[in-house]
Amino acid sequence: MANTVNLDQILQDLDATSALEDLQDIIVALRDAFRVDHMVYHWVDSAGDQYGCGTYSDEWRDRYVVQNYHRIDPVIIGCFQRFHPVDWKRLDWSSKAARHFHTEALAYGVGNQGFSIPIRGPNGQFALFTVSHNCEDAIWADFTEAHGRDLILIAHFFNRKALEFEKTRQPEQSRALSPREVDAMTLLAMGYSRAQVADTLSISEHTLRVYIESARFKLGALNTTHAVARAMSRGLIVV
Amino acid sequence: MANTVNLDQILQDLDATSALEDLQDIIVALRDAFRVDHMVYHWVDSAGDQYGCGTYSDEWRDRYVVQNYHRIDPVIIGCFQRFHPVDWKRLDWSSKAARHFHTEALAYGVGNQGFSIPIRGPNGQFALFTVSHNCEDAIWADFTEAHGRDLILIAHFFNRKALEFEKTRQPEQSRALSPREVDAMTLLAMGYSRAQVADTLSISEHTLRVYIESARFKLGALNTTHAVARAMSRGLIVV
DNA sequence: ACCTTCCTCGCTGTTTCTGGGGAGTGGAAA
DNA sequence: TTTCCACTCCCCAGAAACAGCGAGGAAGGT
Fold it and tell me: Which residues cross the membrane (chains A, B) (predicted)?
């Protein structure tokens, strides 16, 4: 596992990429350059409409998707609540589902060591950049220590490219909410009922309803809960 | 404006920081090391409850806060919908409010050039790391070209520290949700009605209601929308 | 073995939300 | 100037969610 990696060259190659498919080739080359078992970029999207590329076996990837493992995968859950890159050992593997997931992952060739970098983009986009390997703890610690920063940059550039290519698919860049709409969504997210929200904002409940409706429309939401969820995941409101 | 910057030393210093106040000293030192006019870290929070540190004058900062400029600042608006670091020249300064904001910023000593890096953390956290300077376009382009990557890493480490210090404020942890509860919350967050969720999960609506109620209880939520919002902000569900 | 948690199903009545109308102001942009 | 958009207010009927009560079986951990 090693050491002489030309970061500049990698990032330049990444920058020069012009098609989504090329990322797969690049990540394989990266895996070889770093001499680790696996390297994966994984754009997580609850809709199941996820994009990813990497060096896991097709069988594992298929199984992961079919079983909806992104819901119990401690790597995803853990990274989602963190900002730091995180070593898999520091995650919570205590639940039964997590342990089962772990043994199965090992059986499918995923390394016993792992290092994952959470990445977040606009509109609540969330992705992971993961390096995995089979080795002892000390060796792995040296590796992450040595290459952590490089991996952050690579992850950043990877996501940049992925966003660039996927941008066309996501025309749903919702209009920004008006201040009043933000207020309404925020208070609703805090558990207030419509009556309470209207009271807090000193407006009639009818007026409030107009805000909720227009927010729902702007966000393409089906109901209030959906609208609040979307507003949150797009970072339009903070609770 | 310059060139010999010891990135390792900077990041180590950042990592060793143990108090929020120290970040202010570090950012001043950084500004001097990079020989630019201003360097600012700005945690943007829609609530107005923002944290920031940097080298802008106190007058400008106060005015910014009082006037709620974060709502019209093209840097914030532009960065919020981007993932790339962005040069200020590429932002949209066309609106009247933006032009007024710009001339005023210049008057308060903000540089005519700027480079801002959006950073996103868990729960929709959003921050900016900005470098600003007074110089010509070509010189500025050289600078951003030369130091863009370093700045990304510095921004990352800055935000890491800021999150670390702020985390202590909100240690609320709740019991984990059961798989079925997660399913229910997730589908509700996706805009499904109770009937649709029950149908999707192939359970009766009555059963579904029990899940929602127990999730609400576990999360300390007042209603379904609140429960979904809390589940999201705690990273228990991914939408 | 016991206790806890999870999963599943049922009833009733009350409160709240939703969707469909409508109308008028003021400010900012084209 | 006209045309947007944000903000404010109003009514009504049907649909949906809420609160509170109940039950039993399966699986896991102490």
Answer: none
| pLDDT, tens digit, 9 for 90 and up, residues B175-209 | 678 888 888 888 888 888 888 888 888 888 888 88
B179-233: in CATH 3.40.50.2300:
no
The alpha-carbon gap from B198 to the nearest alpha carbon of chain A, in Å, equals 16
Quick one: which residue's CA is nearest to D17's C1'?
B194
Stretches where chain A sits below pLDDT 50 are 171
Scan for tokens 């840097």, then name that residue.
Answer: B75
Does the pLDDT value for residue B11 go beyond 60?
Answer: yes
* B38 close to B130: Cβ distance less than 8 angstroms: yes
Structural domain spans, chain B: 7-167, 179-233
Q: Which of A83, A95, A163 to mutate to test the interface with B (most CBs of B within 10 A)?
A: A83
Strand C: positions under 7 A of a protein C-beta atom? 5-11, 16-19, 22-23, 28-29
Question: Per the structure block, which two tokens stand in for B107?
Answer: 């008057």
Alpha carbon dihedral B163, B164, B168, B173, in 10-degree steps, equals 80
Find the residue in B nearest to A220 (Cα): B191
CA distance A138 to B57: 47
pLDDT digits (tens, 9 = 90+) for A188-210: 888 888 888 888 888 888 888 88
How many angstroms separate the CA of B215 from the C1' of C3? 21
pLDDT on residue A170: 55
Least-confidence region, from B139-143, B162-166, B175-179: B175-179
- Residue B210 to residue B216: CA distance in whole angstroms: 10
Of the candidate CATH numbers 3.30.70.100, 1.10.3470.10, 3.30.565.10, 3.30.450.80, the domain formed by A7-169 belongs to 3.30.450.80
Q: pLDDT at position A171, please? A: 44
ipTM: 0.82
- What percent of chain B has a predicted confidence (pLDDT) above 70? 92
- Residue B108's CB is within 10 A of a number of other CB atoms, namely 14
Q: Which residue of A has its CA nearest to B85?
A: A160
B7-167 topology per CATH? Beta-Lactamase (3.30.450)
Mutate to test the interface with A, among B6, B83, B216 (most CBs of A within 10 A): B83
Give the residue with minimal CA–C1' separation from C5.
B178
Q: How many CA atoms lie within 13 A of A205 on its CB side?
A: 5
Q: Do domains A7-169 and A179-233 have the same CATH topology?
A: no
A229 and B153: CB-CB below 8 Å?
no
End-to-end CA distance of chain A: 43
